[in-house]
Write a structure and sequence with these properties.
Keywords: Membrane, Transmembrane, Transmembrane helix
Order of helices and strands: HHHHHHHHHHHHHHHH
Oligomer: single chain
Distance between the termini: 44 Å
Structural class: mainly alpha
Protein name: VMP1 protein
Number of strands: 0
Shape: globular
Radius of gyration: 29 Å
Largest sheet: none
Helix content: over 70%
C-alpha cells in the first residue's frame, strides 16, 4: 500500500512538472511569436513597403470612421445638443446687430486659442513620434515678441496686423522701459493654451491603461506591456532607464496629486509612463488631469517661457553674436548672416508691409522654413505608418483568435 501511494505521488509530481514545463514552453513560444509579429509590423513603412502601407492605412482609416460613427450614434442626444448649439451660434454670427463687435472679438480669441491648443495636442500625442511644436512654433513666437519688445520698448503692437505680423507702435517710448513681466503677460495666453493642449494629449495613455485594468483584458499597447514587465522586474532593475521609470512610477503612486504635479511641471520625457501608472492604479480622472493641467499649462509653461525670453533678450543676443564672431577662422563668416538677419528684423519692426520697404530673405529664415516643412512631412508620414501598423496588428490578433477557436 505504501509503495502504491508513493508511486501515485511520484506520478502526480511528474504530471505537475510536465504541465509546468508545457506552460513555460507555451509562454516562451507566445512571447517569441509576439516579438516576430512586432518586428513584422515595424517593417510596414512607406519607404520599405509603400503599396502595403498605403492599403493598410486606408483600411484602418475606414475602420476608425466606422467606429466613430457608431459611437456618435450611441450618443445621439449629445450630438443633437451640439448641433443645436452650433446652429444657434451660427445664426448669432450671421445676424446683423450691435453684438457683432463682440462676436468678432470672441471669434478671434477662439481661433487663436484653438490654434495653440491644437499644436499642444500634436506635440503631446504625436501618434508615435510627436511634432515638436514648441521648438517649431511657440518658441519662435515668444522669441519674436521678445526681440520686438526690446526693439520697440513696448508690447502694445497694433492689432491688426499682430499676431500675424509684429509692428512697433507709433507712440514714442523711452529706452529701457520694457520689463520682463510685460513680455510674459503678452505671450501668456498662447503659452497656457499650448500647455493645456499638451495636458489633453496625455489623456490617451491614461484611458488606455484604465480601461485595460477595469476590463481585465490583455492590453493592446506596447508601452503598457513594457510597464507591466517593469512592475514584475522592479526589484532587479539595474540600468538607469529602468530605474528612472520606476522612480516616476513610485512618485506618482505614493505621492498622488503632488507627485503627478511634480512630474508634469518639469520637462519630462517619461511622463507618458505617469499617465499609464495613473490609469493602471485607477487614479481618479480629475486628480490626474487637474495636476497635469496645472503642471503643464501653468508651472512648466512659465519655466519654458522665462527661459526663451531671457535667452532672446537684447543684451544676451548681442553677446551671443559677438561670441560667434570670436570663433577662430570661421567666426566672422558665421557672424555676418546672424547680424544681417537681426538687422532685417529690426527694419521690419519699424515699417508696415505696405510701405514699400524691400523684404529680403536671409538663409537662416529659409533654413527654418524648410525645417518646419520637413518636420511636418515626417509627422504626416509617421501617422500613415502608425495607422498601417495598427491595421497589421488587427490582422495578427484576428489570426490569434481564429487559432484559439480551432
Amino acid at each position: 500500500m505504501a509503495e502504491n501511494g508513493t508511486d501515485c505521488d511520484q506520478r502526480r509530481i511528474g504530471m505537475i512538472k510536465e504541465q509546468h514545463n508545457g506552460n513555460f514552453t507555451d509562454s516562451s513560444l507566445l512571447s517569441e511569436r509576439k516579438r516576430r509579429d512586432r518586428e513584422e509590423r515595424l517593417n510596414i513603412v512607406l519607404w520599405r513597403q509603400p503599396l502595403v502601407t498605403l492599403q493598410y492605412f486606408f483600411l484602418e482609416t475606414l475602420i476608425n470612421l466606422k467606429e466613430w460613427t457608431i459611437k456618435l450614434w450611441h450618443r445621439r442626444s449629445i450630438l443633437v445638443s451640439f448641433l443645436l448649439t452650433l446652429a444657434v451660434l451660427t445664426a448669432t454670427y450671421y445676424i446683423e446687430g450691435t453684438h457683432q463687435q463682440y462676436v468678432r472679438y470672441m471669434e478671434k480669441k477662439f481661433f487663436w486659442c484653438a490654434y495653440w491648443v491644437g499644436l499642444g495636442i500634436l506635440s503631446s500625442v504625436g501618434l508615435g513620434t510627436g511634432l515638436h511644436t514648441f521648438l517649431l512654433y511657440l518658441g519662435p513666437h515668444i522669441a519674436s515678441v521678445t526681440l520686438a519688445a526690446y526693439e520697440c520698448n513696448s508690447v502694445n503692437f497694433p492689432e491688426p496686423p499682430y499676431p500675424d505680423q509684429i509692428i512697433c507702435p507709433d507712440e514714442e517710448t523711452t529706452e529701457g522701459s520694457i520689463s520682463l513681466w510685460a513680455i510674459i503677460s503678452k505671450v501668456r495666453l498662447e503659452a497656457c493654451m499650448w500647455g493645456a493642449g499638451t495636458a489633453i494629449g496625455e489623456l490617451p495613455p491614461y484611458f488606455m491603461a484604465r480601461a485595460a485594468r477595469l476590463s481585465g483584458a490583455e492590453p493592446d499597447d506596447e508601452e503598457y506591456q513594457e510597464f507591466e514587465e517593469m512592475l514584475e522586474h522592479a526589484e532587479t532593475a539595474q540600468d538607469f532607464a529602468s530605474r528612472a521609470k520606476l522612480a516616476v512610477q513610485n512618485l506618482v503612486q505614493k505621492v498622488g496629486f503632488f507627485g503627478i504635479l511634480a512630474c508634469a511641471s518639469i520637462p519630462n520625457p517619461l511622463f507618458d509612463l505617469a499617465g499609464i501608472t495613473c490609469g493602471h492604479f485607477l487614479v481618479p480622472f480629475w486628480t490626474f488631469f487637474g495636476a497635469t493641467l496645472i503642471g503643464k499649462a501653468v508651472i512648466k509653461m512659465h519655466i519654458q517661457k522665462l527661459f526663451v525670453i531671457i535667452t532672446f533678450s537684447k543684451h544676451i543676443v548681442e553677446q551671443m553674436v559677438s561670441l560667434i564672431g570670436a570663433i577662430p577662422s570661421i567666426g566672422p563668416s558665421l557672424q555676418k548672416p546672424f547680424q544681417e538677419y537681426l538687422e532685417a528684423q529690426r527694419i521690419k519692426l519699424h515699417h508696415r508691409s505696405d510701405s514699400g520697404v524691400p523684404q529680403g530673405e536671409n538663409w537662416l529664415s529659409w533654413m527654418f522654413e524648410k525645417l518646419v516643412i520637413v518636420m511636418v512631412c515626417y509627422f504626416i508620414l509617421s501617422i500613415i505608418n502608425s495607422m498601417a501598423q495598427s491595421y497589421a496588428k488587427r490582422l495578427q490578433q484576428k489570426m490569434y483568435s481564429e487559432e484559439k477557436t480551432k
